[in-house]
UniProtKB/TrEMBL annotation:
PANTHER family: BITESIZE, ISOFORM I, SYNAPTOTAGMIN LIKE 2. SUPFAM superfamilies: C2 domain (Calcium/lipid-binding domain, CaLB). GO terms for molecular function: neurexin family protein binding. GO terms for biological process: exocytosis. Its main location: membrane. The keyword Membrane applies. GO terms for cellular component: exocytic vesicle; plasma membrane. Residues 1-27 are annotated as: Disordered. It comes from Thalassarche chlororhynchos (Atlantic yellow-nosed albatross). Keywords: Cell membrane, Exocytosis, Membrane, Repeat. This is Synaptotagmin-like protein 2. Residues 51-173, 188-320 form the C2 domain. The keyword Membrane applies. PROSITE patterns: C2.
Length: 350
């Protein structure tokens, strides 16, 4: 059924105690390295102020240095966030979409106490022109809050495939409210075809030689369809798997790399033992797809299989955020012991 059957012994007992927040800090911090920088793209307060005003910027591509340049000049008539003090502390942030994780964000400095900030800053991306032309530029303006609750002030999205590259002049553009799809992080990243199964402790009977003394979760990653193509040569993809809250090497598994294919077939099975039935409500299987390159790997999308309660062993965690489809898939596995549950789940930004 699969090219590889990885079996990982896994124990949750250390998480069942009631720890202090400090004792879990290393586990929680390591989750961000798995999820990547995309967590911040939709963070913040979207509803407190209405988008208004304009932004002046220019776009250019430096052929010699293979560099995309966004010249952010200034903004005018931005919304006031702190009405009591009559102030906003705005900055401009850019992403290349849909590939937020690979290219990362760029942002200007913060200009304090003004709704008419002047930046005159250039935000730069090292990227091939052919790859750039299948991206969109998302430029947004934010109020900087010292406590981290930054407020969204407006955005503009530019389709770079239809951009007039002979136009290098600074131009004014109206800031728009964030669309519902952008707030929810809805962007097509592909679909994963997989099956999962839970084998409870002792459920196969005493006569079965493979009867597990503790429960097992089986994950069969079959294939992925319609991956993002980040460069002309295609995608060299592989799948990582963790069982959160454990992000140690014991939990980490991965498939082989499938080269130059946006519809890779992995046919890879992973078995985690050490699962008791009560662990299923507090654990989360995170499957992420990555594009492999020599210097670094680039996040393409992922899924998280769990109950999506926001809690793990009584501790609030940001990774227990499964979608309705992912929760339903996990619940079906929990209610159908020893049966393979098949699913086709969309990849998303984690």
């Amino acid at each position: 059924e699969s090219d590889t059957a990885s079996e990982v012994s896994f124990q949750f007992n250390k998480h069942k105690k009631t720890p202090s927040i400090g004792s879990h800090s290393s586990d929680m911090a390591s989750v961000s390295s798995v999820s990547g920088s995309v967590l911040s793209v939709y963070s913040g307060d979207f509803g407190s102020v209405d988008a208004q005003g304009t932004v002046e910027f220019a776009l250019d591509y430096d052929e010699k240095n293979r560099e995309f340049q966004v010249h952010v000049s200034q903004c005018k008539d931005l919304a006031v966030v702190d009405e009591k003090k009559g102030r906003s502390d705005p900055y401009v942030k850019t992403y290349l979409l849909p590939d937020k994780a690979r290219m990362g964000k760029r942002k200007t400095s913060v200009k304090k106490r003004t709704v008419n900030p002047i930046y005159n800053e250039v935000l730069r991306y090292k990227i091939e022109k052919m790859v750039l032309l299948i991206q969109k530029l998302n430029l947004s303006v934010w109020h900087n809050d010292p406590l981290g609750r930054n407020s969204f002030l407006g955005e503009i999205e530019v389709d770079l495939a239809s951009w007039d590259w002979s136009n290098r002049k600074l131009n004014w553009y109206p800031l728009k409210p964030r669309s519902l799809s952008a707030v929810n992080g809805v962007d097509h990243r592909g679909v994963m075809n997989l099956s999962i199964k839970y084998v409870p402790p002792g459920s196969l009977g005493k006569m079965c030689p493979k009867n597990p003394p503790s429960g097992e979760v089986h994950i069969w990653v079959k294939d992925v369809k319609d991956l993002l193509q980040l460069r002309p040569s295609g995608v060299d993809s592989f799948v990582k798997c963790y069982v959160l809250p454990d992000t140690s090497k014991k939990s980490y598994q991965k498939t082989r790399v499938i080269k130059r294919d946006t519809n890779p077939v992995f046919n890879h099975t992973i078995v985690y033992d050490g699962f008791h039935t009560e662990d299923l409500k507090d654990a989360c299987v995170e499957l992420t797809v990555w594009d492999h390159e020599k210097l670094t790997n680039h996040f393409l999308g992922g899924i998280r299989l769990g109950l999506g309660t926001g809690l793990s062993y009584g501790i609030s965690v940001d990774w227990m955020d499964s979608t309705q489809e992912e929760v339903a898939f996990w619940q079906e596995m929990m209610s159908a012991a020893n049966e393979w549950i098949e699913g086709l789940l969309p990849l998303r930004s984690l």
